[in-house]
Amino acid sequence: MSLAHAEGGAALLELAVRAARTAGDLLREGAASGPPEVRTKSSPTDLVTAFDRASEERVVEVLTAARPDDGILGEEGGERPGRSGVRWVIDPLDGTANFVSGYPAYVVSVAAERDGRTEVGVVHDPSRRETFTAIRGHGAARDGRPLSVSGPDRLEQALVSTGFSSDPAARARQAALAAHVVRHVRDIRSSGSAALDLCWVAAGRLGAYYESGTRLWDRAAGVLIAEEAGAWVGGGAAGEPPGDAMTIASAPQVAHALRALVGHA
How far apart are CA 207 and CA 250, in angstroms? Predict the structure, then answer.
């Protein structure tokens, strides 16, 4: 049964929006206060700040106050089992390196899932004060206005975004793939936020996005938003679901060409 029907998708969406915007307010205030203290995780380029943790705490506080029996999977706090059958998947600061540098491309991502399927997604962009939302089967929106993906008719006309891992070896492979892709598209961008890129495909600001090495919290909400806006979303040339190995989202008319280009490479 769809979560939108079984649990009241509109109520869950309203809760997720409130949680994401509350955390976004904290991040916007933090960005205005100057460069934060930075620590590293898996590599010198894998950054974390006190704001990552504080943002996640804000999101969790809002969610658990309303729904204490739900499960939680957060990038910073790990997983907490629940009893309701609903699990929230949270990236409290997608684009930490941008946030640290004062580059305004970072978001709060909150998704609700049942049985491993994302049913509600919210991505809030504090810098632009934009909130992207979706309920499975009920479309996507930006600040309450419906989104419908648009894009070029041919891949060579597409502005394409990708991302790069904090792991040096993975980054080298991704750079090699980007060098291959850029010969076949209008140009390449890298915002540093998978969730933001997925929403920008939904909004028609990008013709396509692909990235290897994302985690569930990076993509859960953004994938649903892109899908509900009408984008083709998958994981490679064979049309498998998006996953850690590869996530692709594009305007439908360039999906086949991009899947072939990225998937076979």
Answer: 6
- The number of distinct structural domains making up the chain is 2
For residue 206, which of 179, 188, 228, 218 has the smallest C-alpha distance?
A: 188
Amino acid at 178: A
- Other CB atoms closer than 10 Å to residue 176's CB: what's the count? 11
Residue 49: predicted pLDDT = 79
Write the CATH number for 42: 3.30.540.10
Place of tokens 């004060």: 129
Residues 9 and 124 grouped into a single domain: yes
Q: Are residues 35 and 132 in the same domain?
A: yes
Print the domain residue range for 169: 155-264
Cut 0.70: pTM above it: yes
Gap between the Cα atoms of 26 and 61, Å rounded: 13
CA distance 20 to 124: 6
Residue 175, Ramachandran bin (φ over 0: left; ψ between -120 and 50: alpha; else beta): alpha
Say whether pLDDT at 128 is over 80. yes
